[in-house]
Amino acid sequence: MVRYLLARLAWAVPIVLAILVINFLIVHLVPGDPVQALVGDLPTPPGYVEQVREEFGLDQPITHQLGLYLWNLAQGNLGFSFANRQPVLGLILDRARLTLLLMLPALTLAAVIGVICALAAAPHAGSAYDSGITALSLIGYSVPIFWLGQLLVILFAIKLRWLPAQGMITLRNTPTGWAAVWDVLWHLVLPALSVTIYYTAVVARVARASVLETISQDYVLTARAKGLSRRAVLWRHVLPNSLIPVVTVIGYNFGYSLTGAILVETVFAWPGLGNLFITSIGNRDYPVLQGIFLFTAITVVFANVLTDILYGALDPRVRMGQRAHA
Amino acid sequence: MSANILEITGLTLDYTARGRTLRALDAVSLSVGAGEAVGLVGESGSGKSTLARAALGLTPAKTSHIAAGEIRIAGRDVTHFSEDEWAEMRGDPVAIVFQDPLSYLNPVMRVGAQIAESVARHTPSLAVAPRVKELLELVKLPAACAASYPHELSGGMRQRVLLAIAIGCRPRLLIADEPTTALDVTTQAEILALLAELRRQLDMAMLLISHDLGIVAQACERIYVMYAGRTIEWGSAAAVFETPAHPYTVGLLRAAHADRDSDGHFVTIGGDPPNLAITTPGCPFAPRCAHALPQCATSMPGPVTMGGGLQTVRCWRCRPDASHAAADAAGQAP
Amino acid sequence: MRRFWARFATHRAGIAAGLYVLALVLTMLGVELLPGADPHAISAEVMRPPSPAHPLGTDELGRDVLLSILHGIKVSLSVGFAAALGATVIGVLVGSTAGFYGGVIDLFTMRISEIFQVVPSFILAAVIVALSGPGLVQVVAVISLLAWPQVARLMRGEVMRIKQLEFVDAVRCLGIREPVILAGEIVPNALAPALAAGSLIVAHAILLEAALSFFGLSSADIISWGRMLNSGQRFLYNAWWLSVFPGAAIFTTVLAFNLLGDALGSALNPRTVSGK
Fold first, then answer.
1. CA distances (Å), A96 to each of A47, A82, A100, A299, C139, in order?
2. Per-residue pLDDT tens for C127-157?
């Protein structure tokens, strides 16, 4: 297992480096003065621009700049956001927590629903019920998540008035204590639902294919031949094997769901990374944009490594590198 | 009321896929009594694997369908059992071992746990761990194997694990479907020897299925020969091998012996394998048979007993006055 | 080839999707070439709900929503096709070279494609467009850049598979040089799955363009469905039709291309999707 872990980490490191370099190159390859990209478009105190020029060595050869950039990053310096009056790194971490608060319940729910649907559809492969799942899955894949969010707002918040349309907390008479927790959860429902619906499509598709494939495997025949009850065959042989691709697809699609959450936040004015992203675009607060790119890209790499580790834990063939005899 | 553990009578089974029907088994009858070693021989597509699976209700439920006949296990009619009813009957008294062992073992479960499942299911009164150890010993595997995963073991070891799983069910009859096909020659011999010994020690009957005449001849007392989903000759192994009556059996044996004809060429069975999608009213071997009579194409011959009751064959060429017909069939040049 | 079309013909949803795409293209051409009402025309009929005069309503400047949607087809389809074309061309070139020559080129290509697979594409696209300015060219370029790895991987796999087949050796024995073999014999046989993936890339590109426009990262003078959703966001309370209809247009178009891509893919691979 240790060797496997090290191998996965070894894979991750060059990718993170590549991400850092890409981020660096964006600043220098787009038209305009690189200082613009590092400072943003807002009024800055006098001398700040020169300070940045010096800090990032903008009048130095590019390799020198790359070195300075990496050194700055290592110290956690992602720049300063004037629009938010905060260093970029701290700002991003604050908002990221709220995005995570949105994502995690949605992911969990999507995973559970997706698997249940797939298990329910499996015995009826090829029938209308099964085609229904495939169709719903395709629809979920094709719908723009921000439009889905808007539809939910129109239906549930505006027409039916069951749930709030925007924000994370009620602004008038803001509750405190336990009531505050309920308030946040109340506001969480619609945005999380958008992400859930979107993600269930991905999970259900994979789960269905996986369950169908597992059921037709030879070892299931052996299990039945032993005289095991249908339940035992399902729980001890089919499920553990069919869930492995499901777990890995959820993990490897973390980037997809993160993007989804970010898109959805703008519809609901949920104060997470997505909201920060769109307001920073409006403010031309470029250091924040870059910071968000770095943060999300590296988080996704991290999620990939975690998924790899989980995969290795679940499937002995993967962690042992399939050292099979003839 | 018979002492047979497995009794299959006139079984007809069809596969349907995308509107087309394949008759995989056509009025097949087979029986295995207590302690017997019976062989089932045929080429790929003859239906022998289907028969093995049908015997335990393991043919795919959606696409296969028993059109006629019955299957009895220990006297009980199991022909139309539901999956839940089957779960009671499988393992004990009839267990099955398959070929190609890697895909037949759960890749994420340790081998010991898979054997333990049989033990817990069929001998719940026994302590699991010691019994698993005992079973591993019986199949001549080191006890340490129990902690391994299937992909860590060699082909021969996996086949032994499958045997241990089957034996853990305490079966009175073990169906072995091509147990040695996926193995190299030396391992084949070991597994066969192991099977013989297990039979002896556990007083177990065996239905050995293979396309390899050699191993069936070695291990079995009675054999059945199948072609295109039909049993075309059966009887005591000695009789069938020494005096084969059906032209197909004759051809198989000559090919197996690597006989040469007058030109020095190896003797083969000419023609193409049968197309199971087309059900012929006559003998399915007729198109390839050098001795075909006009009625061979139009009606399936009934069973004819020869050689003093030791051998039965379905062939228009064969009459109860056994010896002449057999000599005729065997003597003519292809 | 005929078998491919025969298999495709059995996929009813795929055919419907194909017809829909055709209809879209024709509508787009019709709207461009035939004179008609100007979608940019501002009128006094501001924020009207759907009615016989304006079947899909009007927006905050009195512009007819239906007209805007029809004119918006152009942006979506052109960005979709252009990006898919770009990605396919780059992907085919890179992937087939990597698959054929192997070695360092292969390693390098695979690493790069892994990077682009891992990185969240929308965010990268948004950052680049935000920095370099909105404009269709930038958007197409960015999407192509993010999508080519997918095509490259497919191409590489196919080329590696075909390169092993015997007919390649046969051709080599005729004395034909390697690059010619690659271009003339291998690539044409390997193209099919790459083309099936093309439809899926169009779908992905349309979604990406819509998302970018929704975030305000598109030019204000070009009518785009995503941009309509962006303005519609402000009026969710009083003008639901400004969001529902443009979004529906995006949804149906993306769905059509996804279906088409799936149908092409399964027509190429005879093994059925439903469990045996």
1. 31, 19, 6, 11, 27
2. 888 887 777 888 888 889 888 888 888 888 8
Facing C244 at nearest CB: one of A15, A139, A151: A151
CA–CA dist A309, A10 (Å, integer): 13
Residue C273 lies in a domain: no
Kindly state the tokens that stand for B90.
């499988």
Amino acid at C153: R
pLDDT for the residue numbered A163: 81
Answer yes or no: is pLDDT of B143 > 70.
Answer: yes
CB contact under 8 A, A226 and B118: yes
Q: Do A226 and B169 touch (CB under 8 A)?
A: yes
Please tell me the predicted confidence (pLDDT) of residue A322. 54
So what's the pLDDT on residue C131?
82
Note whether A323 contacts B: Cβ–Cβ < 8 A. Answer: yes
Percent of chain B surpassing pLDDT 70: 95
Show which of residues 23-42 on chain A sit within 8 Å of chain B, judged by CB atoms: none
Question: Over chain A, what is the mean pLDDT?
Answer: 82
Give the closest-approach CA distance of C208 to chain A in angstroms.
9
Q: Find the CB nearest A218 among B95, B104, B155.
A: B104
- What ipTM score was computed for the predicted complex, to two decimals? 0.84
CA angle A313, A318, A322 (to 5 degrees): 140
User: What residues of chain A lie within 8 A of the CB of C258, using their CB?
Assistant: 138, 141-142
Separation between Cα atoms, residue A83 and residue A289, nearest integer Å:
12
Instruction: Write the CB contacts of A35 (distance below 8 Å, at least 6 apart in sequence).
Output: A49, A52, A53, A58
> A120-123 — which CB contacts under 8 Å span 24+ positions?
A121/A208, A122/A208, A122/A211, A122/A212, A122/A215, A122/C275
Q: Which tokens sit at B278?
A: 């087309």
CA A99 from centroid of its chain's CA atoms: 9
Residue C226 falls inside a structural domain: yes
A182 Cα distance to chain centroid: 25
Q: Are B205 and B35 in contact (CB under 8 A)?
A: yes
From the CA of C181, how many Å to the nearest CA of chain A? 34
C199 found inside a domain: yes
CATH number at residue C80: 1.10.3720.10
Instruction: Determine, for residues B90 and A225 on separate chains, whether the beta-carbon distance falls below 8 Å.
Output: yes
Residues from chain A that touch B62, judged by Cβ atoms under 8 A, are 125
Residue C39 in any domain: the answer is no
The per-residue DSSP string of B247-273 comes to HHHHHHHHHHTT-B-TTSPBP---S--
H helix count then E strand count, chain B: 11, 12
What is the spatial distance between Cα B326 and Cα B305, in angstroms, rounded to a whole number? Answer: 12
Nearest CA in chain C to A157: C237
Q: How many independent structural domains does chain C possess?
A: 1
Whole-structure pTM over 0.90, yes or no? no
Report the gap between the CA of A211 and the closest CA in chain B (Å): 15
Q: How many whole angstroms separate alpha carbon A294 and alpha carbon A288?
A: 10
Q: Is the dihedral of CA C188, C193, C199, C205 positive or negative?
A: negative
- Tell me the Ramachandran region of residue C154: left when phi exceeds 0, alpha when psi lies from -120 to 50, beta otherwise: alpha
* Cβ–Cβ gap B152/A323 under 8 Å: yes
Q: Are C132 and A304 an interchain contact pair (Cβ–Cβ within 8 Å)?
A: no
Nearest to A219 among B62, B88, B104 (CB): B104
B112 has a pLDDT exceeding 90: yes
pLDDT score for C276 = 27
Token reading at A285: 């607060």
CA distance B310 to chain A (A): 33
Instruction: State the residue range of the domain holding C141.
Output: 2-32+61-268
CA distance B174 to B34: 11
- Residue B15: phi, psi to the nearest 5? -105, 135
Backbone angles phi, psi at C60, to 5 degrees: -70, -15
